[in-house]
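Show me any protein, fold above all:
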Amino acid sequence: MEQQVVLVTGASSGIGRETAILMARTGHVVYGAARRLDKLQELSKYGVIPLVLDVTKDYSCQNALQQILNQHGTLDILINNAGYGSYGAVEDVPLAEARHQMEVNVFGAIRLTRMVLPLFRRQHQGRVIMVSSIAGRVTGPFGGWYHASKYALEALSDALRMETAGQGIQVSIVEPGLVRTAWGHIAADHLAEVSRQGACRAWGEKMARGLHRLYDQKWLNTPQDVAKTIFLAANASQPQARYLCGKDAWLLLLAHTLLPTGLYDMAARWVMKKLS
C-alpha cells in the first residue's frame, strides 16, 4: 500500500507533536507544521518533516501546501490541530484578543481546509481531521471565547462533512477532554492577567489558581491518548463524525445532555468554585 501523506498543524508541542510522531512511526509520510522552525527540528529524529506554517496567513498556507506537493505530489490527510485557549470572562477579554482566538482556532483551520479541498476533490479522496474539544459541546464560566471558537469549528465541520459527502472526502471531529499539557497553564495565566482589572477579578484570579492545580493532576488525559484517537480517526475505513477522548469528556457530555440547563449551570458553577 502506498504511503499516505499527512499534514499536522500545531506540531511543535503537545497533541500535535505526539500525533505527528505516531503517524510517522506507523508508516505515514508526515509533515509537522508550526510557526517556528526551531521548535520543530527535534521531530526530524522521528521521521517527521518540519514545515513552517502560520495558519492565520494565506501566503504561509499556500507556500506550505506547495512545498508538500513539490516533494510528494499529493496530500491525503489534513489534521487541523493548531489552536490555543484564551480564558477570561466574556466582558473582560479584549475584543482584539477574542478576534485572534477566532482567527487561529476557526479561520486558521478553515483557511487551510479550503485550500486542500480542490486537491482532495481531484483525487476523489482525502481526509480532514478537526481537533476540537469537549469545549465544543459544553460551556463553562471564563471559557466563553475559547468555547465559542470550538462551537464554531464544530458547526463548520458538520456542514463541510455534509457538503462533501459522496466526493471521497471524509471529515471527522476529535473532542478531547482535559489534557495534561502546558496549554492549561497558559490559559490559567491568561485568565489571571485579564481578570486583574476586570469585573470578575476575585473569582477569576481564584479560578486561575485552581486551573493551575487542575492541570497538574495525574488523572488527566495525556497528549499520547489524544494522538491515538486522532490516529484512529485518520485511518478508520469508515470514520465516525465525532470521536470523544477521555472519560471526563464522556461524563461532561452526559451531564450536559441529561440535566436541565438551570441545573447544569448550577453544577458547572459549583465545580468551578470548588476548583478555585
Residues 128 and 171 are 5 Å apart (CA to CA). The mean pLDDT is 94. DSSP finds nine helices and seven strands in the chain.
